Amino acid sequence: MSSDLQPRGHRAADPAKRRAILDAATRAFFDHGFAATAIEQVAIDAGVSKVTIYNQFGDKRGLFTAAVERECERMGALFRIEPMPHLSLRARLEAIGAAMVAFLSRPELVQFERRFGKPNDPRCNERRIAAAVETFCRAYGVS
């Protein structure tokens, strides 16, 4: 379910308020983590009421999901690889690997991984790798 959908019975969100809420939530989640982030502080930082946040996102988990989805979209837009039909398969794979390393080494991704990643949980790493490969393949039309 996309975080852009509103719960039944609620009016459409003001886009400026939604951006302000997501900006404040993203900063709070990245700076303090999920458990230490308070909806009350996010509301104050965004200049809205707690009721506005709950109406738009349902609960703290919904707000977190929307913030992460928006950051993933923003970061995903930064990952671009130009077509390389003239290069050998090996050269293309090396270029893709170099682009992925450069992208994954960006400070905001390193911070995200440190804050939310679980490096000692092999199942988490496997899911993350599988999701990254699936996203990459979908983006570049590989099946």
Percentage of helical residues? Answer: over 70%
**How many β strands by DSSP?**
0
Secondary-structure element order, N to C: HHHHHHH
CATH superfamily of the largest domain: Homeodomain-like
The CATH topology annotation of the largest domain reads as Arc Repressor Mutant, subunit A
In the CATH hierarchy, the architecture of the largest domain is: Orthogonal Bundle
Any idea of the CATH class of the largest domain? Mainly Alpha
Give an account of the 3D structure.
By secondary structure, the chain is mainly alpha-helical. It folds into 2 domains: 15-74, Arc Repressor Mutant, subunit A, CATH 1.10.10; 80-139, no CATH class. It has helices at 15-36, 39-46, 50-57, 60-78, 89-104, 107-116, 122-139. Helix 1 runs antiparallel to helix 2 (39-46), helix 1 (15-36) packs across helix 4 and helix 3 (50-57) packs across helix 4. The two termini are 24 Å apart.
Summarize the structure.
The chain has 143 residues and is mainly α.
Describe the SSE topology.
Elements: H1 15-36, H2 39-46, H3 50-57, H4 60-78, H5 89-104, H6 107-116, H7 122-139
Which key features would you list for this structure?
single chain; mainly alpha; Arc Repressor Mutant, subunit A; 7 helices; elongated
